[in-house]
Design brief:
four-stranded mixed sheet; globular; alpha/beta; about 130 residues; Macrophage Migration Inhibitory Factor
């Protein structure tokens, strides 16, 4: 059920895949999503257009051009502790799988309700099944 978007500056296919795998494995480990619940869009930006902007020292975190933005949309219901565990696990696995330093892993979570999902055929499958 999570939908993940990952954006990175000048990341090759191998690095993007590794970060995507790290996020998915963290979602499985930290909040218990099913292993086969995989929906991701992975994008590398070439940096030729000034479309990738960030503050390199915001809130005392010293990030650089290896920064990856991870945006996760999922159904509501996770506790603050579960979300903190998810952020930690994503950072750990991004470092392990892709060599991305934890300081360069920027994660946002947006939550919604079952009616907000259609997995195809113009149907809100979760709303119909009560999941």
């Amino acid at each position: 059920m999570p939908f993940v978007r990952i954006d990175a500056l000048r990341a090759d296919e191998k690095r993007l895949e590794a970060v995507g795998r790290a996020v998915h494995d963290a979602l499985v480990d930290a909040i218990g999503i099913p292993q086969d619940d995989l929906f991701q869009v992975l994008t590398s930006h070439d940096g030729t257009r000034r479309m990738f902007r960030y503050d390199p020292g915001y809130l005392g975190v010293h990030r650089d051009d290896d920064l990856v933005f991870v945006a996760i949309t999922m159904r509501s219901g996770r506790t603050a502790d579960q979300k903190q565990a998810l952020y930690r696990r994503i950072a750990e696995l991004a470092q392990e799988y892709a060599g991305t330093e934890p300081r360069n892993v920027f994660v946002t979570v947006s939550e919604n309700e079952p009616i907000d999902w259609s997995f195809g055929d113009g149907v809100a499958q979760y709303a119909e099944t009560g999941q």
